[in-house]
């Protein structure tokens, strides 16, 4: 009997011991960039006081105010905000550079949602140049491709994360815009800084793109850490009467 008791005791000592460990609650990620098990990419920059704005050294600054505060006795929290229609990730309407289009009501409400949603190509632009006709030729974008997002040196330099506006950003030159219009089927152009036209050639590329309301410009895209290739893009501006542009939420879906 004693031998049996010793064997049982030995078995208890040698058996695995299971410890009950309390799991730490998983920290919620409120600033996600990727969703749907890696299939959905948020390519919209977060609007924040330190993001760059056109020709400003000071960035956006305060843009949102809490008007009603539960902390101060209100029954709810309610905010107001004030932004340029070309803040952060945004879309240009034809009236942005054409007075006749603005007067005719071609604002963001007139933009074709079919163009703003559908198959898209993300391409890497050579890092040593603005987007010229020569660069466009080198990209070999096939006919039939209607939406192209151009990732440039701006993304490498993280210009959209810097408060001070940087006029050395990369974008389209006049000949590059003209080549795109004449030799491709592109209807949506996406770029990774605040303008699709280079600072040294600011007006003419916009006029070429927006003439006859043929191309929609999406500017200030967040294209970090995304593999070049084919996706579906979904980009929606706010529905505002009289607006020559609008902040937008844009995503890519693999």
Walk me through this protein's architecture:
The chain has 254 residues and is α+β, with helices and mostly antiparallel strands. The protein has a domain at 90-253: Putative cyclase (Glucose Oxidase, domain 1, 3-Layer(bba) Sandwich). It has helices at residues 2-14, 99-103, 113-116, 133-139, 153-156, 174-183, 203-210, and strands spanning 34-35, 40-42, 64-68, 78-81, 90-92, 117-124, 147-151, 188-191, 216-219, 229-237, 245-253. A seven-stranded mixed β-barrel has the order 5-9-8-7-6-10-11. A hairpin with a 4-residue loop joins strand 1 (34-35) and strand 2 (40-42). Helix 4 (133-139) packs across helix 6 and helix 6 (174-183) runs parallel beside helix 7 (203-210). The radius of gyration is 26 Å and the shape is globular. The model is unreliable at 1-27 (pLDDT under 50).
How would the blueprint of this fold be written?
Layout: H1 2-14, E1 34-35, E2 40-42, E3 64-68, E4 78-81, E5 90-92, H2 99-103, H3 113-116, E6 117-124, H4 133-139, E7 147-151, H5 153-156, H6 174-183, E8 188-191, H7 203-210, E9 216-219, E10 229-237, E11 245-253
Parallel strand pairs: 6-7, 7-8, 8-9
Antiparallel strand pairs: 1-2, 2-11, 3-4, 5-9, 5-11, 6-10, 10-11
Helix pairs in contact: 4-6, 6-7
CATH superfamily of one domain: Putative cyclase
Helix content: 10-25%
**CATH third-level topology of one domain:** Glucose Oxidase, domain 1
Give me the number of helical elements.
7
Weakly predicted, low-confidence segments: 1-27
Write down the overall geometry: globular
Biggest sheet: strand arrangement: 5-9-8-7-6-10-11
- Could you tell me the mean pLDDT? 91
**Separation of the first and last Cα atoms:** 69 Å
CATH class of one domain: Alpha Beta
Structural class: alpha+beta
Main sheet overview? 7 strands, mixed, barrel
GO biological process, one term: L-tryptophan catabolic process to kynurenine
Pfam families: Cyclase (PF04199)
Family: Belongs to the Cyclase 1 superfamily.
Subcellular location: Secreted, Extracellular space, Extracellular matrix
